[in-house]
Amino acid sequence: MSQQGQPRRTFLTTLGWAGGAALLSAQPSLGLTAEVGDKLHIACNEYPWTVFYQRENQNFNANLEAGLEEVARSGVQGYEASATSPEQVDHLVSLLKKHNLEMRSLYVNTVLHDPAKAERSIETVLAIAQRASKAGTKIIVTNPSPISWGGPEDKDDTQLRLQGKSLEKLGKELRTMGLTLAYHNHDIELRKSAREFHHMLAGTNPEYVKFCLDSHWVYRGSGNSSVALFDVVTLYAPRIVELHLRQSVDGIWSETFGEGDIDYPALVQKINEAGVKPHLVLEQAVEEGTPRSMDAVESHRRSLEYATRVFAPLA
Question: How far apart are CA 181 and CA 210, in angstroms?
């Protein structure tokens, strides 16, 4: 998705909780990758379509039905929208059914560090999730927003403690509904020794707070470091229930998901060794400097072909 402090807990605490999470990762409700036989289910996120359309001076959501027709034409099997209300979910579900697209996951932003907004934010997510669950959604992905989108401010320890506590509360409530909460980050949460990122995982119960690994945001937020990315996978692999898939070449987002800065075959091997089967969601977006040689449909077709080959070991 578009971009959006207590010090890091000790690795011993993290690894101790990860051991418990390893048992939970075997739950059937989290095994969302495999289809019948060896076929992978690969979805896409809303964000890439919006930015591909924007560079053509078009608005993807202005005619959502036409947009979803192109999503289906690209060959992906599912769609992860960014929802803001239960009514939006109802409208979306009817269109997805028309185009034979599943909605196994849904992205909902939250504000959980502010005591005046946290409870209301949780209530909104639960209302959205209740509608989405009736359409087969299993994972609710959330990014607790920064103090200001893209701004220089960092959350203090009091705000981080409240955010972690609120995130865990939300995850616990969603679990009673048969849903899984997956924490998602951008690059901002990796600032200040990644104190916000790590507290949302090391400081929460893995039974209620899982992890949506967006490899490229971790890579970029760590100063384009594959070392940091693979260390994150080592620490939190048992909690990974979803992957957002994006690639770059020389630090700039590529037009298709393929070979580039991040060694995805090695990442697949590491995740496979951890015994988890995450939900796969393409999020190959464009930014300033990205090549401009194809539209969103062709980009997703090519990205899907590569992802299907690379992630085959997870089927």
Answer: 6
Nearest CA-CA partner of 265 in 301, 218, 230, 224: 230
In this structure, the strands spanning 248-249 and 252-253 are antiparallel
Burial annotation 230-255 (CB, 10 A radius, 16+ → b, else e): bebbebbbbbbbbbbbbbbeeeebbb
Question: 11-314, which class in CATH?
Answer: alpha beta
Of 120, 196, 106, the residue nearest 160 (C-alpha): 196
What counts of helices (H) and strands (E) characterise the chain?
11, 10
**Could you tell me which residues are beta bridge partners of residue 212?**
242
Measured CA to CA, the distance from residue 94 to residue 8 in angstroms comes to: 44
pLDDT in tens, the chain (315 residues): 444 333 333 333 333 333 333 333 333 334 444 343 457 999 999 999 999 999 999 999 999 999 999 999 999 999 999 999 999 999 999 999 999 999 999 999 999 999 999 999 999 999 999 999 999 999 999 999 877 777 888 999 999 999 999 999 999 999 999 999 999 999 999 999 999 999 999 999 999 999 999 999 999 999 999 999 999 999 999 999 999 999 999 999 999 999 999 999 999 999 999 999 999 999 999 999 999 999 999 999 999 999 999 999 998
Q: Which residues contact 294 (CB under 8 A, 6 or more apart)?
A: 255, 256, 302
Whether residue 264 contacts residue 35, with contact meaning beta carbons closer than 8 Å, is answered with: no
DSSP-assigned beta bridge partners for residue 182:
141, 210
